[in-house]
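User: Design a sequence. Structure:
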């Protein structure tokens, strides 16, 4: 704590002096040995990227403003400032009301500093476009306390309506939030079911943070729950899908990652074959149907049958519509 106080004094001295600050002045203000002073200079330089430079000519230390600029006590390069604006721009597109009040003051300073360096902050909004498709926005009165509960490790009580319109009230120990395909999901330990479950955040209609520590699930278990099988419908992989893509679909799929444990092979004919582990086929079937006649399910037979049945159902739907129109 004492050294932290000295770090604040060191930063204040460097910001308040127009010329390089002599070492003797710093030692007198910081009330420390020369060895401690050098160690604190090293901390600010290496751990926090403060642009501290020593002037041999004037025998003192100063901040090199040509290397970085300071925002609310933090130093940023021009590239880092641009990255901050891009992050804010992305967040506004994904969740317009999320953290907007908290980012407003910082973003205003960042805009001013970038303008001083000859950069136009508005160009980021013009040159970088994010277009969420079929995204369901989450109310801030749900998202903010949920985020707080995850970071602080607290149990939450929720009123929840799932994708099948089933309503329930339950206590959850939230583990992590996942943004997946334009939707937010929550991995949580369900105190009602005594199991690790994935919840659709848009289905949470009411949320209350309880004064109760959450159950902690190990990172290994969480990774197995979410990442070991294809898609958000999780679980240990039971099958491996073998798919063959042709035409434009092959061009789009080549080099893309559907799953961290997938295998991919390009044939001499220009086809792409993909092997994907999965436990629940629902989401995988929807992905396969997106590619129409340019994808073939080679295995397993159960997955092939599901895709064929979906195609038959779609064709029957169109045939029935044509009959009604012509009837």
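Assistant: Done.
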């Amino acid at each position: 704590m004492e050294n932290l106080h000295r770090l604040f004094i060191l930063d204040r001295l460097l910001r308040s002096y127009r010329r390089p600050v002599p070492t003797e002045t710093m030692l007198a203000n910081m009330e420390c040995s020369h060895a401690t002073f050098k160690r604190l200079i090293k901390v600010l330089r290496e751990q926090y990227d403060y642009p501290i430079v020593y002037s041999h000519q004037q025998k003192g230390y100063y901040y090199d403003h040509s290397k970085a600029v300071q925002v609310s006590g933090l130093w940023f390069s021009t590239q880092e400032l641009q990255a901050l604006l891009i992050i804010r721009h992305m967040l506004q597109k994904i969740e317009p009301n999320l953290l907007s009040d908290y980012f407003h003051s910082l973003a205003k300073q960042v805009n001013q500093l970038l303008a001083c360096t000859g950069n136009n902050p508005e160009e980021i909004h013009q040159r970088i476009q994010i277009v969420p498709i079929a995204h369901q926005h989450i109310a801030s009165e749900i998202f903010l306390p949920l985020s707080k509960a995850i970071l602080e490790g607290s149990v939450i009580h929720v009123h929840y309506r799932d994708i099948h319109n089933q309503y329930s009230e339950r206590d959850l120990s939230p583990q992590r939030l996942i943004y997946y395909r334009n939707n937010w999901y929550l991995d949580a330990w369900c105190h009602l079911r005594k199991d690790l479950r994935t919840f659709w955040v848009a289905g949470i209609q009411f949320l209350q943070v309880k004064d109760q520590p959450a159950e902690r699930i190990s990172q290994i278990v969480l990774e197995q729950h979410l990442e070991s099988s294809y898609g958000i419908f999780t679980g240990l992989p039971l099958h491996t899908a073998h798919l063959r893509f042709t035409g434009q679909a092959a061009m789009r799929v080549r080099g893309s990652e559907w799953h961290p444990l997938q295998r991919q092979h390009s044939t001499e004919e220009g086809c792409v074959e993909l092997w994907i582990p999965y436990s629940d086929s629902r989401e995988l079937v929807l992905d396969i149907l997106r590619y129409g006649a340019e994808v073939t399910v080679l295995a397993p037979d159960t997955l092939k049958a599901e895709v064929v049945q979906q195609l038959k159902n779609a064709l029957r739907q169109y045939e029935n519509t044509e009959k009604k129109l012509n009837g």
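The radius of gyration is 28 Å. The longest helix spans residues 301-326.
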